[in-house]
Amino acid sequence: MMRIHLTRFLAAAFMAVAALATPALAHDQQLGDLLLHHPWARATPGGAKAGAAYLRIENHGDTADTLIGASADIAALVEIHMMSMENDMMVMGPAGEVEIPAHGTVELKPHGLHIMLMGLKRPLKEGETVPVTITFARAGSIVLEVKVEAIDATGEGGMEGDAEEHSH
Amino acid sequence: MNRRVLLVSSLALVAAAGIGASYFFNDRKMAETLAVGGPFKLIGTDGQEVTEAALKGKYAVFFFGFTFCPDACPTALNTFSLMMEKLGPTAEQVQPVFVSIDPARDTPEAMKEYLASFDPRIMGLTGTPESVAETARIFRVYYKKSGEGDYYLMDHSTAIIVMSPEYEYAGVMNGAMSVDEMTARLLEIMQKGS
């Protein structure tokens, strides 16, 4: 009797530790040939009506795919946007359709391509996970588990993933 | 003969113009002192009027942006916050200022709520569309509405302008600088000025 309890307790404890440890690590999601690496967002300042989500999209297939749209319950309008610098001016706007070349990688990251969340219904809080759906022309749609990181995060949290990848 | 005189004199003229121009443009610091920054009349986060008089005696560090900005603006404000911490006691000589170039959405209340996520020493300013436009013009900051409806964005310059305690142009920094880079650059500007 005691023994069973102990085993159960250990199993539960192990699962609890595993659950606690997971959010700190970079995470990947898979959609067909596409590897969606570490979807994340920055926590938003008080009252902010806009936020941005980022991830790295790797196409391991032989056919190009196209990112054609995004949506999320947390925002009134979600679009793929591009930010760029033109003569010291920061210019932002819809990026249109984004091609993911066969065996190619497209990085959505600060100061570049991003999933723009407009009309946020509530702030993005550090530590939470927010569902954001992205849609590809070929692979279809997937609900990304977007991890909300600190307000000063740079996305470097995805580095463990990079190290693993370079080793094989 | 006439033609040769004409050629020589025009060459002399061109040379003179060149020397004059280089004189004028070489002293860039002088030109910038005359041209960047100046008096303004804006509204603080408590709805009160704020002018440049509130900044005299400190190095004022101006960043122009808007709260409906997912990336560059929170990054720059966060860099300001960390820089103020890093400066230690020297921070007492520094006044970071965040000026909205989107006064239609950035009311004093919205600015106050937004800035509560950053260092409390950052001053938030907004104003009427006219007073904001005039301030941006004086600081040589350009901005332009991009998109339509409720969710438009603002294209804008990300230069950070530093004014001396006498409220004269002291230097420029870049919003994309890291905390270390920006802190070092500001200290360099402050040393040059004293």
Q: What does this 3D model show about the protein?
A:
The complex is a heterodimer of chains A (168) and B (194). With 168 residues, chain A is α+β, with helices and mostly antiparallel strands. Chain A has one domain: Sandwich (Immunoglobulin-like), CATH 2.60.40.1890. Helices cover 17% and strands 48% of the residues of chain A. In chain A, a hairpin with a 7-residue loop joins β2 and β3. Chain A is globular and about 65 Å long. Chain B is an alpha+beta fold. Chain B has 2 domains: 30 residues; 158 residues, 3-Layer(aba) Sandwich (Glutaredoxin). Chain B is 42% helix and 23% strand. Chain B has 6 helices and 9 strands. In chain B, β4, α4 and β5 form a beta-alpha-beta unit. In chain B, α3 packs across α6. Chain B is globular. The interface between A and B is medium-sized, with 30 and 33 residues.
Identify low-pLDDT runs of chain B: 20-28
Round the mean pLDDT of chain A to the nearest integer and report it.
Answer: 84
Q: Secondary-structure element sequence of chain A?
A: HEEEEEEEEEEEH
Strand-and-helix sequence of chain B, N→C? HHEEEHEHEHEEEEH
Specify the overall morphology of chain B: globular
- The general outline of chain A is globular
Count of DSSP H/I helices of chain B:
6
The named CATH superfamily of chain A: PCu(A)C copper chaperone
Largest sheet: number of strands, sense, barrel closure of chain A: 11 strands, mixed
* Strand numbers in spatial order across the main sheet of chain B: 2-1-5-4-3-8-9
Which CATH-level-2 architecture of the largest domain in chain B?
Answer: 3-Layer(aba) Sandwich
